[in-house]
Amino acid sequence: MPPAHWSFWSYLWRYSLRIGLPVIALGMFFGYLDSTGYELPTDPEMVANIAVFGVMFGGLSQIIAFVVALAAFIIERPARRQWAAYRGAGWTTSQCRSAYSLHKREAAALRLDSRLRELGLAPVQPQAALTPSPQKNLSKMDRLWAWLAIPLCAFLVFVLVGPWLDTKDVQTLQCEVVSAEPGTNSGGTRGGASTASVLVKTSNCGTLGISRGVSFDNRDEVASSFTIGATYGFDVGWYSRTFFKNNIQSVRAYRLIA
Hints:
Elements: H1 8-35, H2 44-75, H3 77-88, H4 93-118, H5 140-160, H6 162-165, E1 171-185, E2 195-202, E3 207-210, H7 219-224, E4 231-236, H8 238-243, E5 248-256
Parallel strand pairs: 3-5
Antiparallel strand pairs: 1-2, 1-4, 2-3, 4-5
Helix pairs in contact: 1-2, 1-5, 3-4
């Protein structure tokens, strides 16, 4: 039951949070999945792509929240008036909520009896007098949101700081080069935008991607500089090693070993 003083903006704020945050998180997650189509998913463009998806889904969620808030504001108008009457009589918030819950249960029982009479059935035996039950501090939806808010926020933070995490715990992988060819990072929502890279296939480290220091002018030269069969040391960050071990890991630096 909404408090009597709630304005439309109160409804809009409530549903903007309840609908907006989960939808934005979902959008950023789709942006994260879309970014895996890039050849170098830990590139800073990954963060931009995630942000674009978050903004798009966020805008859509606010349109939905506006419609839901407007509908709730109109539908719950009688409830707000009843709340105001209760508070005018000096009732506490807990008493107002309990009385409203009791009223809803009694109305549901009357509707059921009416329907049973229409079907020619005996009405439900009257129960003992209903008494308002103590109102819990949080509703089921509020408790569910409280449990979901923490992991959602943690996920958003984790995705956004992914490129920064790739600068931590950088380790050198010794890999035997099988082939090296110039590539172009494209796809996702970037349309025609693209960046140059070099894809290095190895016999023991999978496929590695190099974009730092690579341009469209020198990518062929960088690719041809690798000696097939030689062992190189590739510096790879924690994020790439952990989450893209079976995909294309982003290389921060490399050097010839043997």
